[in-house]
Design a protein that fits this description.
Strand content: under 5%
Helix content: over 70%
CATH architecture: Up-down Bundle
Number of domains: 1
CATH class: Mainly Alpha
């Protein structure tokens, strides 16, 4: 098993599986974050955030998610360096004009490193404050959950205050576009890695991947932008 994971095929398999896992997470994360746009003072979002924070299943998935990110990042860097070493100077022969090769596929490492930097910022903005250090904005508020008044953290207030900063919004919008570019290649590539691809399905997965990638990327960008434009004050 260890020899498989250390091989090129094993690394690609881990990249594909971790990528699919993370793509499912992104869709769930976007769905929950879209509740930030309901004009009810954050009650619906806070109720959803409370459910996610107190759900035993989420408590199990959260460390798996962290492992998934680490595996995807580390193996992505290792595979890129390994492929560049194998190609040597041949990778410069055709320049950036190779037909059928997208800009995103040629720059997955750059996109990945950029998204990792954004992930560190995102964790510092929210996860660290919600899980470790706390923040005065997180003081409990009462929301109605299934007809029962419930005291929950005011996660909405923290997010809303963060998106009141224009530079933060710009970073999130750019990161959303970068995420879309990364996913546009990563989507079909993940399915190809696990063997679910051929001439017919490659075309379908490319189209489906582009739809998914830009839906998710633009979705995250719009949430930050709309919070800044319409939900302040």
């Amino acid at each position: 098993m260890s020899s498989l994971l250390c091989s090129s095929i094993g690394k690609k398999l881990l990249m594909g599986l971790s990528g699919l896992f993370l793509m499912m997470f992104l869709l769930i994360h976007l769905t929950v974050n879209s509740l930030l746009l309901i004009p009810d003072g954050g009650d619906t979002f806070n109720a959803a955030a409370h459910f996610m924070a107190t759900n035993p299943f989420i408590a199990v998935v959260e460390p798996l998610l962290a492992i998934g990110f680490i595996v995807h990042i580390v193996w992505g860097i290792l595979l890129t360096l390994q492929n560049r070493k194998a190609r040597g100077s041949a990778r410069y022969a055709s320049g950036n004009k190779t037909k059928g090769v997208t800009w995103a596929s040629q720059n997955m490492l750059i996109l990945g490193i950029t998204l990792f930097a954004f992930l560190v910022l995102h964790v510092a903005h929210f996860w660290v404050k919600m899980k470790l250090t706390g923040d005065p904005l997180l003081n409990d508020v009462t929301v109605n959950i299934a007809g029962v008044p419930t005291e929950v953290e005011n996660a909405y207030a923290l997010i809303n205050a963060t998106f009141a900063e224009l530079w933060v919004v710009i970073v999130y919008v750019v990161a959303g576009i970068g995420l879309a570019l990364h996913l546009s290649h990563g989507f079909w590539s993940s399915f190809q890695t696990i063997g679910f691809s051929n001439d017919i399905w490659r075309k379908r997965l490319t189209i489906l991947g582009n739809v998914y990638a830009w839906f998710v990327g633009i979705g995250f960008s719009l949430i930050a932008l709309l919070q800044y434009l319409f939900f302040q004050g």
